[in-house]
Amino acid sequence: CDFFDDPEVARYIPDLQNYLAGKDYFLTPWLAYYLETPFAYIMTAEVKKRDPGLWSKWREKKGKTYSMDLLIGEDDFLGKGMSHLLIKKFIDENFQHAAAFLIDPELRNLHAIHVYEKAGFVIVEEFKGEHDRFAGIPHIMMKLILSSRKSP
Question: Which residues, including other chains, have CB under 8 Å from residue 116's CB and lie 6 or more apart?
Answer without folding.
Answer: 84, 87, 103, 105, 142, 144
